[in-house]
Structure formats: structure tokens, C-alpha cells
Write the C-alpha cells for this entry.
Amino acid sequence: MKNYFLLITFLFCSSIIAQNSLLLPPENVQMAFKNKYPSKIPIWSIEYSNNQKEEVEFEAQFAETSGIKACAVYDQSGAFKAYKVPIQLNKLPKKVQIYLKKNYTLKFIKEILNVLDDKNASSYSVSLRKNAKLYRLIFDANGDYKDRTRLI
């Protein structure tokens, strides 16, 4: 009985330790990040880009400037997918600001990102809460509405 108790304790402790381990992406992803941002120290996370969890993307969060954290996204092969940096509401194109004020309560905005994709195309991502649901709105560089996705 004592041995079973020790075994269970060991398994429990090892699972707790494993949860605190660092995620390191494949070497090619790390090298791609280091080549693009040589002086930055990333904190890695993993995202699945589809429901079947087949397409994996690695997100590297890092300090862009003091107080501003940016994010670089890479696929499994190490190809750069996107660069995301938070911005203030007043930095959005006027079209986006007008659209948001007309259709949503501004105090429920959770996050505003300027997104630069692998083709150097800029867009804006706005995450907000409406009727207890979380949405992500996408606008192009000109401020034209493109898409709304329900997150939760």
C-alpha cells in the first residue's frame, strides 16, 4: 500500500512539473525567429490553425519596445506568417473607429492589433465582447470591414 501511495505521489508531481516546462518549437522555427529578430528573447506558445489540430503555428511573444509586447507567428516549417503588435483605438483608421462606435460599445474592446502578414499586407484585428460573446473583427489596411469570427 505504501508503494502505491509513493507511485501515485510521484506521478502527480511529475505531471505538475511537466506543466511548467517550456515549449520550444523545432530548431528551424527558432532559427527563423532569430534571423528576423536577432536581439529579441521570445516566449513561445503553440496555436492550432484548424479544428483538427493538424496545422500548428508557433507564436513568439517578445518585448518590442518598453511596455509593448509584439508577437511573431511561424508555421511548422519555419515560414514567417504574421507580425502582431497592439495599438490604441485612436491609431486605427477613421473608418474602423466609426464602424466600431456605430456597431459596438467601445468599453468592451479587449484588444486591438496591427497585423502584418507574410506578404507585407497590413490589417487590423479587434477583439471585443458583445452580449457575453467574444468576437474578433478583421479590417484591411484601408479600414474596410472584412470578417467577424466568434471566439467564445
Remarks:
- Residues 17 and 92 are 43 Å apart (CA to CA).
